[in-house]
């Protein structure tokens, strides 16, 4: 019963449009996967916020791809520094690879101030045989 009450409170907070992004980032008492799924059709950006908070990387990438949120995905990937995740998204079979690469190069790398973000991204691109990107 307590879980249900929390879920109702979370969804009400999202639907109220009273700074739902901040609400999702600061609230620790929800299941990111459940609430992310709830947000997918309402506001895909909020789904990404929920998935990112909960470490649901594959769900985040799926929602970003489905909704052309490549800038969000690029920023997440650069900050996350996860080689396995990079391998997944830079796979040549990934139909969303090109727009994602474009956003990594044009947006995410130019915004970061962290040398480790850049070096991890460069390693991922080299491992994916993308040295000219």
Short synopsis of the structure:
With 133 residues, the chain is mostly helical. The protein is built from nine helices and no strands.
First-residue to last-residue Cα separation:
52 Å
Strand content: under 5%
Tell me roughly what share of residues is in helical segments.
over 70%
Quaternary assembly = single chain
In terms of structural class, how would the helical and strand content be classed?
mainly alpha
Report the major sheet.
none
> What best-fitting shape do the alpha-carbon axes yield?
elongated
Spans of at least 5 consecutive residues with low confidence: none
What is the H-and-E element order? HHHHHHHHH
Average predicted local confidence, pLDDT:
90
- Tell me the number of helical segments per DSSP (H or I, 4 or more residues long): 9
Task: Calculate Rg over CA atoms.
Answer: 16 Å
- DSSP strand tally: 0
What does this structure look like?
The N and C termini lie far apart (52 Å). This protein has helices at residues 2-15, 20-26, 32-42, 44-54, 57-66, 70-80, 83-89, 97-111, 115-127. Helix content is 74%, strand content 0%. It is elongated. α2 (20-26) packs parallel to α4 (44-54). It has 133 residues and is an all-alpha fold.
Please supply descriptive tags for the structure shown above.
0% strand, mainly alpha, 133 residues, elongated, 9 helices
């Amino acid at each position: 019963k307590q879980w249900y009450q929390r879920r109702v409170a979370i969804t009400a907070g999202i639907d109220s449009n009273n700074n739902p992004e901040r609400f999702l980032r600061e609230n620790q008492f929800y299941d990111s996967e459940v609430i992310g799924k709830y947000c997918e059709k309402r506001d895909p950006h909020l789904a990404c916020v929920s998935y990112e908070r909960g470490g649901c990387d594959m769900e985040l990438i799926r929602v970003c791809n489905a909704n052309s949120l490549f800038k969000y995905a690029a920023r997440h990937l650069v900050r996350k520094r996860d080689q396995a995740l990079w391998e997944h998204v830079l796979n040549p079979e990934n139909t969303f690879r090109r727009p994602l690469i474009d956003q990594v190069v044009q947006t995410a790398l130019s915004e970061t101030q962290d040398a480790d973000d850049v070096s991890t991204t460069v390693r991922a691109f080299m491992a994916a045989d993308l040295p000219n990107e």
